[in-house]
Amino acid sequence: MDWLRKRHSRRCCEGCTKAGNTHGEMLLVTDMPAIIKQTKGDSYMFDVACIGILVADLIAKPVDTIPGAGLLERIDSIGLYSGGCAMSAGIDMSKLGLKTAVLGKIGNDSFGEFLRSELLKYHVNCDGLAVDPSVQTSASVVLSASEGERSFLHCIGANGTYGYHDVDFGIIQNSRIVFVAGTMLMDAFDGETSATVLRMAKEMNKITVLDTAWDSKGRWMNVLRPCMPHIDYFLPSMDEAVMLSGKKDPAEICDVFLAMGAKNVVIKNGKDGCFVHREGMLIGIPPYTCNAIDTTGAGDSFCAGWITGLIKGLDIVECGKFANAVGAHCVMEMGATTGIKSYEEIHEFMNQA
Fold this sequence. Notes:
With 353 residues, this protein is α/β, with parallel strands linked by helices. The protein has one domain: UDP-N-acetylmuramoyl-L-alanine:D-glutamate ligase (3-Layer(aba) Sandwich). It is built from eleven helices and twelve strands. The strands form three sheets. The chain has a six-stranded parallel β-sheet with strand order 5-4-1-8-9-10, with helices on both faces. The protein has a four-stranded mixed β-sheet with strand order 3-2-6-7. Strands 11-12 form a two-stranded antiparallel ribbon. The longest helix has 17 residues, at 2-18. The chain is globular, with a radius of gyration of 19 Å.
């Protein structure tokens, strides 16, 4: 690994300088390559390295009314849960049976210690987790309504300072898939720095996956454009895809992203069901019926299910079905990862549906 350390050191200054669901998902998949098959002699320490955000979620439920200034509204529960795209997806995939590692940053505080302990509890590798005592761990207050939809108050904290110099390229080298989770919420990593890391991952022959978050700053494609040529699977939500592409028709959205260099596009669209685009056809995949309690982490669980399907060698239709089933389990419990079961239990659920 000497060459990797030398390369990391040489590029660190460049990178630092540039840094400045619900129970059903709709997806569109375009130009899917051959299903991943491990060749004889391939050996990876990790199936997936998740690079991205980690968040302590304080979930309040049910919140159907916001009290006025100085007033109080009683609710049923307030709980502390793990969240953030990389953390949730990493735990989900570990519970599904994959070997996962999470790369990100936390503060030296009680929230950070809680998040680390949650990763270790679910056997997720934390060697790539940087600790910065100068910033607080990212946290959100999640206001969950009776019907399951939620609103967020978010402190970006340590996620905003995670940059090129924090990336553990040794873990990337020892992973089969590199998943960037939480683009638009990592101020020092998004854009050119993220593109550099993705390009280096591709040079290591890794499969790259990227999921976006909502961009409250309105930068959208200005942030993502340099990353697109280095993404094998791009997984935005429909709302995000519309903002990124400037289009509303799913086929036109896919055309925009493919023209920018993304190899494949998966568009999540909440409770409206699933459609898979294959060989010029749209294939409808119905959602799984379930009792949605909390949609926190639904999109992350869908991504985890999709990536797990790739690793397991499922075809694209089965990947969509499995991802929807994982999403269904997510929303049936409180918290972003609580409801996720094993790979076998998810399949049993699908067979009984």
